[in-house]
Design brief:
The chain has about 290 residues and is of the alpha+beta class. It contains nine helices and six strands. Helices cover about 40% and strands about 15% of the residues. Strands 1-2-4-3 form a four-stranded mixed β-sheet, with helices on both faces. The protein has a two-stranded antiparallel ribbon with strand order 5-6.
């Protein structure tokens, strides 16, 4: 479960994490939370302060038991500061269910918004707003280092996620055409999936193929930027070169047939790559 969060907002240079509130990394974490709640058939609610709640039982029944933490980070923070509390909440719920526990009170896992205060300068903003400890007008007027107001950041992050998916689909096509490559989003999961309901979570899968790795990486980056999310790599197939002598020989047999590159993933390519890697390994010594 926590492995899905591992790459989000991580710096390759320092291995630290930067997940400021209402940033692309934070939104990816929020989507993760919604996905984990949906996977457990929990009721997902988001209060007016941006705090996310995953409910087991009726939240209106009162006397609820709530556990959780936050998903945002300080600059270049640790991997487990905050997210561990949220992951542990889901893990505790799973354990209760595995033991056959049927709670007599509503149980919720919560992810509070902007606990660190790293972007707008006020820590625990989500919980302070919820309890009246932070004036809403003051919160809306808070600015980050770039001069963006909290109200603007929340507004920009609060669009229908299907619009972000639509932007990603268009970006995949346009970016691929610019690089003589191909890219498509052919699979998407929408939650809750009602015809008359605004979605709270959309997960989509991008397939991108091109002549060189740099082009494909740029396509993926462009799609992530359009969707305001950080893509998570599920599969990568490096370039494999067909034997040139055999290629030219076959082309000659076919009457100087054109030689075309292919972006298809094939078993022969997997085997060829494995052979190359085996050849590079040091020989065993007795």
């Amino acid at each position: 479960m926590s492995a899905d969060l591992h790459p989000v907002g991580r710096s390759p240079a320092t291995s630290g994490y930067t997940r400021f509130a209402w940033s692309g990394a934070d939104l990816t974490c929020r989507e993760w939370f919604a996905a984990e709640a949906a996977r457990r058939a929990l009721d997902i609610t988001v209060d007016r302060n941006g705090n996310q709640w995953a409910w087991w039982g009726d939240p209106d029944a009162g006397d609820a038991v709530v556990t959780g933490s936050h998903l945002d980070s300080v600059p270049d923070g640790g991997a487990f500061d905050g997210p561990l509390g949220v992951v542990s909440g889901f893990a505790a719920l799973d354990l209760l269910r595995d033991r056959g526990v049927r709670p007599v009170r509503p149980f919720a896992v919560v992810s509070f918004t902007d606990e660190e205060g790293a972007r707008f300068g006020v820590p625990c903003a989500g919980s302070r707003l919820m309890t009246g400890g932070l004036d809403p007008d003051r919160a809306r007027s808070l600015s980050d280092a770039d001069g963006s107001k909290m109200a603007e950041a929340v507004s920009a992050a609060g669009h229908d996620p299907m619009l972000r998916l639509a932007a990603a689909v268009v970006a995949a096509r346009d970016s691929a055409e610019q690089r003589a490559a191909v890219a498509t989003i052919g699979k998407a999961h929408v939650h809750p999936g009602g015809t008359n309901a605004i979605s709270c979570l959309v997960r989509a899968w991008l397939d991108a193929r091109g002549h060189d790795e740099q082009s494909v990486r740029r396509i993926v980056a462009a799609v992530g930027e359009a969707a305001r999310a950080e893509p998570v790599e599920e599969s990568w197939s490096p370039e494999v070169i067909f034997g040139r002598e055999l290629r030219d020989h076959v082309a000659g047999l076919l009457g100087d047939a054109p030689v075309l590159a292919t972006g298809a993933g094939l078993d022969a390519g997997v085997e060829a790559l494995a052979t190359v890697l085996t050849d590079l390994l040091p020989a065993e010594t007795p």
